[in-house]
Amino acid sequence: MNFWQYSSPQYFYPLAKKMAIIFFVLACILTVWGLYIGFFVAPTDFQQGESYRIIFIHVPAAWMSMIIYLVMSFWAAIGLIMNTRLSSMLAQALAPTGALMTFIALWTGAFWGRPTWGAWWVWDARLTSELILLFLYIGYMALRASIEDPRRADRASAILALVGVVNVPIIYFSVKWWNTLHQGASVSFTKSPSMATSMLTGMLVMALAFWMYSIAVSLVRVRRIIRDREANAGWLNESRGAS
Amino acid sequence: MKPRYKRLILVVVALALLTLGATFVLKAFRSNLVFFYTPTEVLAGQVPDGQAFRIGGMVQEGSVGRKEDGVTVRFEVTDTIENVPVQFIGILPDLFQEGKGVVAQGRINAEGIFLADQVLAKHDENYMPPEAAEALERARKIKMDKQ
């Protein structure tokens, strides 16, 4: 089997459908499991009471918002360098999910911030850089939408995505580099997690569920983009009956 | 050289320059990006004169008290080295506690008292059930008794 054939929209199209179904099923199972741990197994927090349970949504969404941006700019860069159509389509397909994750992270954060900190929003480095990420996603999508020719849109938006990529490490390290109101990382690569085990398990399962969901929904979206952009290609009309 | 290698080099060089530029900008903004100042920085005069700013640290144990009017709260913010007295009129957030993190916004008056118009609780990264917190507290007390 030639692995590289899947870089062609024609071969990727049916594969994406099969993968999307698998990832959707996994996303459903993991969400149910993760929320069960989050609501029924994980104990109440000693300080925040029940309001800490927002982490089961907030942290996975915030992680995904950064990871999706990295993946999106990776595919945008590959599309720019190799001139491959599918890479740019993948970048295009990831943007709305990334924007959604950023929005969820900001919104749940505000909901948690009000009872915990005493403010819906503060202009600290973590919150502000995450807001900039949302603007980057929106700007990326707006730029794409404003250019008629898809290949030109690919190149222009790829440059925007790549310029914005410096923001991701800023978000991640903001709580380390500066005094912020947002607390430091409870889970990181360098130290053992400062959380009770069942809380951590719930959070990680939810993070996996968010991964599966993001992959599945991006694959569905990339199929729609392929249908749009390859509408004149012969293979699409031939295979329309099949998949 | 193939065009794709040229483009690869271009992208890598552009990203490297961008990272370098961002590093310089962040270094220049370093002090402006600070959300709050610590009491040590405040007492060392590193805060902008006559301007509102935020002060952050721990609420000094046993320092929280109310004035006779019942709404004015006084407490001290500490970074374990220096203390700054803070005065605030209003409702404190639920997580405001002695020995916990706090960020207050306002300005410092002539007597060196920080008049806050907003007090925020700064949460730490520790999440645990109440039983575990009690166990930690017990362990801490035993350790202190031994000393």
Account of the protein in words:
The complex is a heterodimer of chains A (243) and B (147). Chain A is an all-alpha fold and 243 residues long. Chain A has one domain (13-239): Four Helix Bundle (Hemerythrin (Met), subunit A). Chain A is built from 8 helices and no strands. The longest helix of chain A has 33 residues, at 9-41. The two termini of chain A are 21 Å apart. The model of chain A has no long low-confidence stretch (mean pLDDT 90). With 147 residues, chain B is α+β, with helices and mostly antiparallel strands. Chain B folds into 2 domains: 1-33; 39-122, OB fold (Dihydrolipoamide Acetyltransferase, E2P), CATH 2.40.50. Helices cover 33% and strands 27% of the residues of chain B. Chain B has helices at residues 3-29, 39-43, 130-146, and strands at residues 53-59, 65-66, 72-78, 83-89, 101-108, 114-122. Chain B has a 5-stranded mixed beta barrel with strand order 1-3-4-6-5. The mean pLDDT of chain B is 84. Classes of the chains: A mainly alpha (243), B alpha+beta (147).
